[in-house]
Amino acid sequence: MEPNNQSPQPVNSSVPGTPTPPPVAVPVFNLAAFATPPLVDTSEHTPVPMMSVPIAPTPLPPQLSLSEQVAQIEKDIILLDQKRESLEVETGTLTSEQKKIEESLAPVVKEEKDVRALLKEIESREMSAVAKADKRKAEQERFEQEKKRRTVEVTKLEIKEKIEKILSSISEKEVLHQSIIDEEIALKKKIHELEMEQKRIELNVKLQLITQTRGDAELALADITKEKTRIQTLLRETEVKEKTIEEHDHDLEQKLSVTQTLKEERALAEARTVLEKERHDIELARWDAEDQADELGHSSADAEKVLKEIKKQEAELILKLKAFQ
Question: Which of the ends of the chain has fewer CB neighbours closer than 10 A, N or C?
Answer without folding.
Answer: C
